[in-house]
């Protein structure tokens, strides 16, 4: 339901989406067993400094959880605006903090953030939250890189990291889609170096 709602009102919640996808993938036990025989993986290389590695993984999981909350809360913000629910997020996180399946020590930090800024569109924009993120993002990047390089499935942290990198980037490579659409359908595109709408008579390399 969250994934469908996010698509309908235009809110990106990839980590919440991937949680459902991961559960579905886990049900493909027989297929995964067959695939693991076809695509055998090398043994995972244990980091030399295991104590530091454990701390970094812990920080990565902490930040991934925070980013997942950020997505869910952003969905509530947009849904409240879209459907005129007038959801008081400060009160919502206070209730969650009192006892809920998604209860977490992070909720106290969110409560303080919404107490200061009731109309905060994304919890990642809060100053105090941003300090936590800046402190732990290196660990999330290193943990994600370790998982990828060793063939370890880590859909949750990968999606959390991808969301963060995209959300904190002013100009995304998705802008290139405009050029592709202009190439095959003359849909025009915008440029980053000047104002206006443009169209190019694209040529193939052989012309």
From TrEMBL:
Domain 6-phosphogluconate dehydrogenase C-terminal, residue spans: 2-203
Pfam families in alphabetical order: 6PGD
Gene Ontology MF: a single term: phosphogluconate dehydrogenase (decarboxylating) activity
SMART domains in UniProt: 6PGD
Keyword Oxidoreductase: yes
Gene3D superfamilies: 6-Phosphogluconate Dehydrogenase, domain 3, N-(1-d-carboxylethyl)-l-norvaline Dehydrogenase, domain 2
EC number of the protein: 1.1.1.44
Keyword Oxidoreductase: yes
Top EC class, one word: oxidoreductase
GO biological process: D-gluconate metabolic process; pentose-phosphate shunt
Domain of life of the organism encoding this protein: Bacteria
Keywords attached to this entry: Gluconate utilization, Oxidoreductase
InterPro entries (alphabetical): 6-PGluconate_DH-like_C_sf, 6PGD_dom2, 6PGDH_C, Pgluconate_DH
Similarity comment: Belongs to the 6-phosphogluconate dehydrogenase family.
Protein name: 6-phosphogluconate dehydrogenase, decarboxylating 2
Gene: yqjI_3
């Amino acid at each position: 339901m969250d994934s469908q709602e996010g698509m309908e009102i235009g809110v990106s919640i990839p980590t919440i989406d991937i949680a459902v996808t991961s559960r579905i993938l886990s049900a493909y036990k027989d297929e995964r067993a067959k695939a693991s025989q076809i695509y055998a993986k090398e043994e995972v290389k244990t980091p030399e400094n295991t104590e530091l590695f454990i701390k970094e993984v812990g920080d990565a999981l902490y930040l991934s959880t925070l980013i997942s909350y950020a997505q869910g809360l952003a969905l509530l913000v947009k849904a409240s605006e879209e459907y005129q629910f007038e959801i008081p997020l400060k009160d919502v996180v206070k209730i969650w903090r009192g006892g809920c399946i998604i209860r977490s020590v992070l909720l106290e930090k969110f409560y303080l953030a919404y107490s200061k800024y009731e109309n905060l569109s994304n919890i990642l924009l809060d100053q105090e939250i941003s300090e936590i993120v800046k402190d732990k993002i290196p660990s999330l990047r290193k943990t994600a890189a370790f998982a990828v390089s060793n063939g370890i499935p880590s859909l949750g942290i990968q999606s959390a990291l991808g969301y963060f990198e995209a959300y904190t980037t002013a100009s995304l490579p998705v802008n290139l889609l405009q050029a592709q659409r202009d190439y095959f359908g003359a849909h025009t595109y915008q440029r980053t170096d000047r104002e206006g709408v443009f169209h190019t008579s694209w040529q193939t390399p052989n012309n």
